[in-house]
Amino acid sequence: MLTTACVALSSSLASLAFVAGYGLARARWRLLALPEGRRSDEATFTTLHIAAMAAPALRTGLNRDSARRAVRHLRTLLGTQAVAITSTEAALAWEGPCTDDVLTYARATLAAGRAQVFAGEPHGAVVVPLTVDGTVVGTLAAFDDEVSAALVRTVTEVARWVSGQLELADLDASRQRALEAEMRALRAQISPHFVYNALTTIASFVRTNPKRARELLLDFADFSRYALRRAHDFTTLADELTCVDRYLLLERARFGDKLRFSMQVAPEVLPVPVPFLCLQPLVENAIKHGMRGRGGTGEVRVVVRDAGPEAHITVEDDGAGMDPECARRMLDEDPAREGSGIGLANVDLRMRQIYGDGYGLVVETALGAGTKVRLRVPKTTVCSL
């Protein structure tokens, strides 16, 4: 994917370099007032500026809206009487006095699979295929009074640049689909694990303390309602902490006074959007390791601080700790591997996929010193909430 993106970018730069030269030739009368050494620079700057204005629309893919927003910039870039963008089936957008033959020209170009020149009145046309990953997805058509060899070359280069932007859009969409599929798989991995632990805890009270079992079932029902109602992969920090609270109540019922826990939360960060079920696995890991090496007792502390543009979260236990190399291996293991549980690797992977590698988990631990897991969450608005 990275190689493809680099190829598309290199192709785009080469295309724009030629277009800048062509633009200098066509606009020479406008540049005569400039010192000779600045004319080429001015044409290059203008070309790059216009391309930058068209790029955001094209990076959303080829459709009527993106074509409509990009076509006027492409006409300015080419300096022709008119420009049209088509898909393989319809004319998507045009700017200037295009002829009614644009779709006929496009179909002929699609059938030929290469650039075509058409004579016509009052304007001739140059039509070039647009491709994504080797597949023709549409055409770029330019209409002008005189169809020269330089115009054919320029339209071809602009079409290559447009194709590069569409290819990058396709890569973005593929990456997003892969991320969404990965997150759905990780979420499906988390929920059954928690269900198993919760029901096992509740089952231990069914005969000895039915009333307590009923209360725990209600706590578990609250968690289930939270988990199953989420249509997206994000929630608020407030809801996530409520989920953690329900989990801790279930675990406290299991371990009794042997498990101590505390939560310290800055109210300002409660509305911050966070990945769904990003904290419960960390608390589960803290309980798992915190109860070791201290006679079966342990304390878990959750601290959430306001840190300007970010929320800083720590989950700490006072257990036996571990060798730092062991912690590194836990982060590196495959979260999808059967039997690997939900643990640190799962949350670390999702945080890095969503926010970037700089937002992975940080684990501070040593033998006999407990374990502290830190994560940072930007205070960004997530559209999927």
Automatic annotation (TrEMBL):
It comes from the Bacteria. Keywords: Kinase, Transferase, Two-component regulatory system. InterPro entries: Bact_2-comp_sensor_kinase (IPR050640), HATPase_C_sf (IPR036890), HATPase_dom (IPR003594), His_kinase_dom (IPR005467), Sig_transdc_His_kin-like_C (IPR004358), Sig_transdc_His_kin_internal (IPR010559). One of its GO terms (cellular component) is membrane. Residues 279-381 form the Histidine kinase domain. Signal peptide: none annotated. It holds the Pfam family HATPase_c. One of its GO terms (molecular function) is phosphorelay sensor kinase activity. This is histidine kinase. It comes from Nonomuraea jabiensis.
